[in-house]
Specification:
154 residues, mainly alpha, elongated
Protein backbone atom coordinates (compact mmCIF):
# COMPACT_ATOMS: atom_id res chain seq x y z
CA UNK A 1 0.00 0.00 0.00
CA UNK A 2 2.83 2.41 0.80
CA UNK A 3 4.56 1.71 -2.52
CA UNK A 4 1.31 2.24 -4.41
CA UNK A 5 0.64 5.61 -2.76
CA UNK A 6 4.22 6.81 -2.34
CA UNK A 7 3.64 9.81 -4.60
CA UNK A 8 0.71 10.95 -2.44
CA UNK A 9 2.82 10.55 0.69
CA UNK A 10 5.56 12.68 -0.87
CA UNK A 11 3.05 15.36 -1.88
CA UNK A 12 1.67 15.31 1.67
CA UNK A 13 5.12 15.86 3.15
CA UNK A 14 5.77 18.68 0.68
CA UNK A 15 2.51 20.37 1.66
CA UNK A 16 3.30 20.02 5.37
CA UNK A 17 6.78 21.43 4.81
CA UNK A 18 5.29 24.41 2.94
CA UNK A 19 2.82 25.17 5.71
CA UNK A 20 5.43 24.73 8.44
CA UNK A 21 8.31 26.38 6.60
CA UNK A 22 10.15 27.68 9.69
CA UNK A 23 10.43 24.20 11.18
CA UNK A 24 11.33 22.75 7.79
CA UNK A 25 14.14 25.25 7.25
CA UNK A 26 15.49 24.65 10.76
CA UNK A 27 15.47 20.86 10.31
CA UNK A 28 17.12 21.16 6.87
CA UNK A 29 19.79 23.46 8.27
CA UNK A 30 20.59 21.08 11.13
CA UNK A 31 20.60 18.07 8.78
CA UNK A 32 22.97 19.85 6.37
CA UNK A 33 25.26 20.81 9.26
CA UNK A 34 25.31 17.21 10.51
CA UNK A 35 25.99 15.91 7.00
CA UNK A 36 28.91 18.30 6.48
CA UNK A 37 30.36 17.42 9.88
CA UNK A 38 30.15 13.69 9.09
CA UNK A 39 31.69 14.19 5.65
CA UNK A 40 34.51 16.29 7.11
CA UNK A 41 35.24 13.70 9.80
CA UNK A 42 35.21 10.89 7.22
CA UNK A 43 37.54 12.89 4.95
CA UNK A 44 39.95 13.50 7.83
CA UNK A 45 39.99 9.78 8.66
CA UNK A 46 40.69 8.85 5.05
CA UNK A 47 43.38 11.53 4.82
CA UNK A 48 45.03 10.26 7.99
CA UNK A 49 44.93 6.69 6.70
CA UNK A 50 46.43 7.59 3.33
CA UNK A 51 49.08 9.72 5.05
CA UNK A 52 50.06 6.81 7.30
CA UNK A 53 50.25 4.43 4.32
CA UNK A 54 52.44 6.88 2.38
CA UNK A 55 54.81 7.39 5.31
CA UNK A 56 54.97 3.63 5.87
CA UNK A 57 55.82 3.15 2.17
CA UNK A 58 58.58 5.78 2.45
CA UNK A 59 60.03 3.93 5.42
CA UNK A 60 59.80 0.46 3.83
CA UNK A 61 61.13 1.48 0.41
CA UNK A 62 63.88 3.68 1.89
CA UNK A 63 62.93 6.63 -0.29
CA UNK A 64 62.37 8.94 2.64
CA UNK A 65 65.82 10.44 2.10
CA UNK A 66 65.02 11.35 -1.53
CA UNK A 67 61.69 12.91 -0.56
CA UNK A 68 63.35 14.76 2.33
CA UNK A 69 65.96 16.09 -0.11
CA UNK A 70 63.28 17.24 -2.61
CA UNK A 71 60.82 18.74 -0.13
CA UNK A 72 63.11 19.80 2.77
CA UNK A 73 60.95 18.05 5.39
CA UNK A 74 59.74 14.47 5.41
CA UNK A 75 56.25 15.39 6.64
CA UNK A 76 55.69 17.92 3.84
CA UNK A 77 56.55 15.35 1.16
CA UNK A 78 54.04 12.84 2.47
CA UNK A 79 51.39 15.54 2.75
CA UNK A 80 51.90 16.60 -0.88
CA UNK A 81 51.65 13.01 -2.08
CA UNK A 82 48.58 12.43 0.12
CA UNK A 83 46.98 15.56 -1.30
CA UNK A 84 47.44 14.40 -4.90
CA UNK A 85 46.22 10.88 -4.10
CA UNK A 86 43.06 12.28 -2.50
CA UNK A 87 42.47 14.76 -5.34
CA UNK A 88 42.82 11.92 -7.85
CA UNK A 89 40.29 9.83 -5.93
CA UNK A 90 37.86 12.76 -5.68
CA UNK A 91 38.31 13.50 -9.40
CA UNK A 92 37.59 9.88 -10.28
CA UNK A 93 34.48 9.90 -8.08
CA UNK A 94 33.21 13.10 -9.71
CA UNK A 95 33.85 11.60 -13.15
CA UNK A 96 31.83 8.48 -12.31
CA UNK A 97 29.08 10.66 -10.81
CA UNK A 98 28.92 12.73 -14.00
CA UNK A 99 28.42 9.52 -15.99
CA UNK A 100 25.71 8.22 -13.62
CA UNK A 101 23.71 11.44 -13.16
CA UNK A 102 22.03 11.63 -16.62
CA UNK A 103 20.63 8.11 -16.27
CA UNK A 104 19.36 8.84 -12.78
CA UNK A 105 17.75 12.06 -14.02
CA UNK A 106 15.97 10.22 -16.84
CA UNK A 107 14.73 7.53 -14.42
CA UNK A 108 13.33 10.10 -11.97
CA UNK A 109 11.76 12.11 -14.79
CA UNK A 110 10.06 8.99 -16.18
CA UNK A 111 8.84 7.93 -12.72
CA UNK A 112 7.41 11.40 -12.05
CA UNK A 113 5.66 11.47 -15.42
CA UNK A 114 4.11 8.02 -14.90
CA UNK A 115 2.95 8.98 -11.41
CA UNK A 116 1.45 12.23 -12.72
CA UNK A 117 -0.43 10.43 -15.52
CA UNK A 118 -1.72 7.72 -13.15
CA UNK A 119 -2.99 10.21 -10.55
CA UNK A 120 -4.48 12.49 -13.20
CA UNK A 121 -6.38 9.55 -14.72
CA UNK A 122 -7.59 8.42 -11.29
CA UNK A 123 -8.79 11.91 -10.43
CA UNK A 124 -10.49 12.30 -13.80
CA UNK A 125 -12.34 8.98 -13.39
CA UNK A 126 -13.31 9.84 -9.82
CA UNK A 127 -14.57 13.30 -10.85
CA UNK A 128 -16.67 11.83 -13.67
CA UNK A 129 -18.22 9.30 -11.29
CA UNK A 130 -19.48 12.02 -8.90
CA UNK A 131 -22.94 13.54 -9.05
CA UNK A 132 -23.37 17.31 -9.32
CA UNK A 133 -24.22 17.54 -5.62
CA UNK A 134 -21.11 15.62 -4.57
CA UNK A 135 -18.98 17.79 -6.87
CA UNK A 136 -20.36 20.90 -5.18
CA UNK A 137 -19.62 19.43 -1.72
CA UNK A 138 -16.09 18.51 -2.78
CA UNK A 139 -15.38 22.00 -4.14
CA UNK A 140 -16.87 23.61 -1.01
CA UNK A 141 -14.73 21.39 1.22
CA UNK A 142 -11.57 22.23 -0.74
CA UNK A 143 -12.33 25.95 -0.51
CA UNK A 144 -13.02 25.66 3.23
CA UNK A 145 -9.77 23.83 3.88
CA UNK A 146 -7.87 26.41 1.82
CA UNK A 147 -9.46 29.25 3.75
CA UNK A 148 -8.72 27.54 7.08
CA UNK A 149 -5.09 26.92 6.08
CA UNK A 150 -4.68 30.53 4.96
CA UNK A 151 -5.55 31.70 8.48
CA UNK A 152 -2.33 30.12 9.74
CA UNK A 153 -0.21 31.73 7.03
CA UNK A 154 -1.48 35.27 7.55
Amino acid sequence: MIKKNLDLIIVGFVMISIFMYEVTLEVLEEAAHLLFELLHTAFEWVELGVDQVVEHMFHELHIGEAIAYLFITERHGSQVITFYILMSAIGYGLFKLSKTFPGLYQFLKRAFLMSWIRRKTQFHLYWRSLTQLHKAFLVATALGVTLFASLFII
